[in-house]
Design brief:
about 230 residues, alpha+beta, six-stranded mixed β-sheet, globular
């Protein structure tokens, strides 16, 4: 089975400097044509943490639906600012778990099981010590949750290739290309870590004029083939 999976830090729909214009982000997502996309910063950060990405527009503009889960608050779309959108037929069979993470700041990850793939959407901490602890926790959790096919995808907040990713030695780590800052991307903060049994057919960065305006991150994507049973 082939899947096109993407990840996108929306920066709360504010682009680099504002104003709040989530329709741009939704158009970027639609142009990616993903089967599944993990999202970061889908909610505003303070107060009741209301949704920054209007759920009423998601299906209309992208053809995708958000996974059903217990969110941060009554008006939130995600948990710790994260959500996952996917095709409706995949969402019907998806099983979701929230994974609290250690670190200086409150962080969490979302694990979604669909077909034989456990996809974990991540937005790791700003401190490398926190990121190391978070990745160690995620790898340990994945070994218990997954049946073999695991994929971590999201904003790793790590700009080095040789530090901070030690816990991922059993996985294949891919940085498709510079994704930050969006107007002049230089750093490969958005990454993928995938089991060796999953065939990665292609990867890339959604670098378009609109994407360079819609967020401070560019989206990344991967086309994968799951192993046969």
């Amino acid at each position: 089975m082939k899947l096109r999976i993407a990840s996108y830090n929306l920066h709360k729909g504010r682009g680099m400097t504002g104003p709040h214009a989530p329709e741009r982000n939704l158009q970027v997502i639609a142009e990616l044509r993903p089967d599944i996309i993990t999202l970061q910063e889908v909610d505003f950060r303070f107060g009741a943490r209301p949704e920054a990405l209007p759920r009423a527009l998601i299906a209309e503009m992208t053809g995708l639906v958000p996974i059903q889960m217990r969110t941060t608050g009554e008006t939130s779309l995600g948990w710790h600012g994260q959500s996952v959108l996917m095709r409706a037929d995949l969402a019907e069979q998806a099983v979701t778990r929230r994974l609290p993470l250690p670190g200086i700041e409150p962080r969490g990850a979302l694990a979604v099981r669909v077909h034989d793939l456990t996809l974990i959407g991540v937005h790791l901490g700003l401190a490398r010590s926190s990121r190391r602890a978070q990745l160690a926790r995620l790898v340990a959790k994945a070994s218990r949750l997954a049946g073999g096919s695991v994929m971590l995808m999201g904003d790793f907040n790590e700009w080095r290739d040789d530090r901070g990713l030690e816990s991922l030695e059993t996985l294949r780590v891919i940085a498709p290309g510079p994704s930050y800052p969006a107007p002049m991307p230089r750093l490969r903060l958005d990454r993928i870590a995938v089991s060796h049994c999953v065939e990665v057919l292609a990867t890339g960065v959604g670098d378009t004029p609109l994407a360079r305006q819609a967020s401070d991150h560019l989206p990344i994507w991967a086309e994968i083939r799951l192993p046969r049973d």
